[in-house]
Amino acid sequence: MTPAVIQLAAEAAERRSAEVTDWGARIAWVIGLLVFIAFVYWLMRQGWKWRGALQSDLPELPAAPGGLPEHRLALTGRYHGSTTAGQWLDRIVAHGLGVRSRVELTLTDAGLDVVRPGATDFFVPAAQLRGARLDKGIAGKVLTEGGLLVVTWAHGDKLIDSGFRSDRAAEHAAWVEAVNLMNQSITTEGAER
Predict the structure, then answer these.
(1) Which terminus of the chain has a smaller tally of CB atoms within 10 A, N or C?
(2) Radius of gyration, CA atoms only, the chain
(3) Please, which residues bridge with residue 193 across strands?
């Protein structure tokens, strides 16, 4: 072998044995990234708690009375949250209204019973129902046009929109009609007195 070939072989061996990773720097970057992610989650949690504190004037949610009359309609699906009526991005988090969950909705002559496994159940008396509509979104959830059943109801001095999606979306139209008819009959009865 010539001295030039030996020189090239030695240089090639040096290049192959060079350290590829600086483990100390890499570990520091990973730890820094994890701390940053934890900080962002902490800020999000603080924001959620702050929003709940701002909404603390909202009264407790009513529970369903015993012995509800026979139901008009029932559905199973998802509860996507509640917002201030007409402001689809102003999520209400007080009393667990901001928690998404499975839902079993039952509409009776007494009102709307909202049963949420793993979250707080609540009841909307018929006199508090203000209407229902099909919409495409509510805070944190956007669907195709008409993919979300939004029920408007009064609670304390606040109007609230609550968003639901049935497991069978074809049921939404019947719910809108039934809630709006119930609201019209209650309004008519109240005007006659």
Answers:
(1) C
(2) 28
(3) none
Buried b (16+ CB within 10 A) or exposed e, 14-32: eeeeeeeeeeeeeeeeeee
Give me the DSSP letters along 17-78: TS----HHHHHHHHHHHHHHHHHHHHHHHHHHHHHHHHTTTSPPPPPPPSSPPPEEEEEEEE
pTM assigned to the model: 0.72
Hey, what are 78's tokens?
A: 């998802």
Other CB atoms within 10 Å distance of the CB of residue 111: 22
The Cα–Cα gap between 84 and 90 comes to 6
| Paired tokens of 16 | 């192959």
Nearest to 81 by CA among 71, 90, 73, 72: 90
Task: Decide: 100 and 83 in contact? Cβ < 8 Å.
Answer: no
Q: How far is CA 80 from the centre of its chain?
A: 4
Say what the pLDDT of residue 162 is.
92
- Going by DSSP bridges, is the β-strand pair 141-142/111-115 parallel, antiparallel, or unpaired? unpaired
CA 100 to chain centroid: 4
> pLDDT tens-digit profile of 99-128?
899 999 999 988 999 999 988 899 999 889
